[in-house]
Amino acid sequence: MRIIDTHLHLIYPDRFSYPWLSGAPAINRPWHVESYWAEAAPLGVEAALHMEVDVAEPQIADETAFVLGLDRVIGAIANGRPEHADFERHLERMQALGRVKGIRRLLQGQPAELSQTQTFIDSIRLLPRYGMNFDICVKSHELMLAPPLIEACPETQFVLDHCGNPKIAEREWESWTTRMERVAELPNVVCKVSGILANVDDTWTVDTIRPYVEFVIETFGWDRVVWGSDHPVVTLFADLTKWVNASREIVAGASQVEQEKLFSANAERIYRL
């Protein structure tokens, strides 16, 4: 089963500044494309989309240009600041690079009002003009920030990262499922099956995460899910191999067509690959 990884982070500290990494010592080191492919290729991963790594703001364009030149990176989701009045100029620069498939502005941990301003909304409404999606990354308790933004931008394709970040180690369920059902009601959003291993603890097994993945697929449907590694964040409690194997085990009972949708076909359609 071929895989397109829609959520690969690469870290080059010799080239770029990552202010947040000082607070994440477990992954605060280089993570280069060569080491990723050494593990990913034997697992069936054929290509990847690079997901921005929250570099220092002046380096956003340089990071995006750099990763687009790396081996088997077939597109990028670039960083951006939709709250800025000159956001469209940024989109023009990103479009000129080619193969920028979307924008992500991390919303987790940000003031709730950030994504609700008219400037932010107007900026996100511009994305279809440039052939780009918007990846939403929030913590589970912040999920209700998503519906107003998604509803205000009906022509924009949204991707909800990391299954909405359920607190699996804390056995969060009802509050997360209720919020996820509300997000899934909106037709212009898909969900990325990624990142949930950052929310477990050392005791996790496939059966620990199975209900969360199955709920996302059931709630959004097979046509509205994509798969991502969240490498190297996935290494906090596992590794890429364990995540790929766990993902395959969870969907082993699905049809070949359904599995292909999750692992590659939907990504090709949604990110226009």
Shape, per Cα inertia axes: globular
Main sheet, how many strands, which sense, barrel?
A: 8 strands, parallel
Number of domains: 1
Helix content: 25-40%
The separation of the N and C termini measures: 18 Å
Please count the beta strands (DSSP E, at least 2 residues each): 8
Mean pLDDT: 97
Low-confidence stretches: none
- SSE topology string: EHEHEHEHEHEHEHEHH
Proper CATH architecture:
Alpha-Beta Barrel
CATH superfamily: Metal-dependent hydrolases
Q: Proportion of β residues? A: 5-15%
Rounded radius of gyration (Å): 17 Å
Describe this protein's structure.
With 273 residues, the protein is of the alpha/beta class. The protein has a single domain (3-270), classed as TIM Barrel. Helix content is 34%, strand content 15%. It is built from 9 helices and 8 strands. The chain has helices at 33-40, 60-67, 87-97, 118-125, 146-152, 174-184, 206-220, 240-250, 256-270, and strands spanning 3-8, 45-51, 73-79, 100-104, 133-136, 158-160, 189-193, 225-227. It has an 8-stranded parallel beta sheet with strand order 1-2-3-4-5-6-7-8. α7 (206-220) crosses α8. The protein is globular and about 45 Å long. The two termini are 18 Å apart.
Kindly list the characteristics that best describe this protein.
TIM Barrel, globular, eight-stranded parallel sheet, alpha/beta, 273 residues, 34% helix, single chain
Summarize the structure.
The chain has 273 residues and is α/β, with parallel strands linked by helices. 34% of the residues lie in helices and 15% in strands. Helix 2 (60-67) links the parallel strand 2 and strand 3 (73-79).
